[in-house]
Request: fold
Amino acid sequence: MKHNHIAGRWMAGGDGLDNVNPSDTTDIVGSYAVADGGMVAEAAQAARAAFPAWARSTPQQRADILDAVGSELLARREELGTLLSREEGKILADGIAEVVRAAQVFKFFAGEALRIPGEKVASTRPGVEVDILREPVGVIGIITPWNFPMAIPAWKIAPALAYGNCVVFKPAELVPGSAWALAEIVTRAGVPAGVFNLVMGPGSLIGDALVDGVDAVTFTGSVATGRRVAQRAVGRMIRCQLEMGGKNPMVVLDDADLDIAVDAAVNGSFLQTGQRCTASSRLVVTEGIHDRFVAAVTERLERLAVGHALKPGTEIGPVVDSRQLEQDLSYIAIAEQEGARRRCGGQRLTRETPGFYLSPCLFTETTNAMRINREEVFGPVAGVIRVRDYDEALSVANDTPFGLSSGICTSSLKHATHFRANSAAGLVMVNLPTAGLDFHVPFGGRKGSSYGPREQGRYAVEFYTSVKTAYVRAG
Reply:
């Protein structure tokens, strides 16, 4: 059994949590110890005790550790990518690519550790100097989801450590293998005892204890859970950063290049089994191109190979577990009850190994008022909304409680420019899938999708540091 990591020691918890391969439910990836509230409190105390020394460590020390983590991830990308795909269900190429992305994030923040910003400004008073400094916040609680079990932990852990904070990391219970492997790499890279701690288990069991023991919490997951985290954090007057759901629109105008639009829609809506918060689950299509677009997307979906994540040739792996599969099938049934037309897919599939396989599902004749277009399904399911023109497309695209990512396919510079300026989302794509991001620029949304400072890139400094203004009378 793989243990939790607390105060520099690997510690057993309660009953082991079996990690089931969604491509083959007879395959148990491993057993992972579950922490309890007391262990979480111990981890937070260890982090708090380690914080003063770690906060005073040199930027070079932190940079070297983060760079070493990135180097080991790159060296083991095939091994760790296989583990990731085996426990999460995304195809092997995507699993390996995610490990590489995690490595890139660690190496990026190794550089940022040496570039912690500050300012010296002139005072309004003679003989006075003013320095604006950035200092670490303290102990950061990190709660991550199952859909990117290596990349999302990386883009939270790396900046936290780079800026001199200590960490208590709780991964999603569905994907403990990638989290444990990452934790083992981080601890061997030279992080002092207590600076980095891993506690595994369901959020319902240890989530409150985590929020109660830290100075700040960063969370990625569902809207409902995010709101509970925020309420508890605000009750303690600690800062929180939330990345939650999306119901992202992809607008396709009559003047779009059809091949580009189809590629963007199929990639953004269905690859990685649609299990991305940036997935384009609403395809908002103008009348002149609607029928050709639907026919081309349908033809492409019917050719996609759904199968075991590690099998060569597979393009879409399984849904992550039985609960997510049942949720997907439930939304498919709801859409049909509300009058949507199932154009293709939406069936549970049987493959050589028992797993949670679902054919990618496209609905037409949907409206923006249908639940299929209002609520996040988080599976390989998308609805097409027919609109008259660009103005209606923009209105429909923005008519959502979410605001994470949006996209437009068009050859019109006028419409592309207007959409970039008027889309009510934190991420805007032109002639690209709504999913697919760079690691060195800010990530985050608006409305119900995000709360608090942006993640990733140099903007991460806003959450992981606290500003101090120091005045000095010279002489």
In short: DSSP finds 15 helices and 24 strands in the chain. The chain has a mean pLDDT of 97. The CA atoms of residues 347 and 353 lie 17 Å apart.
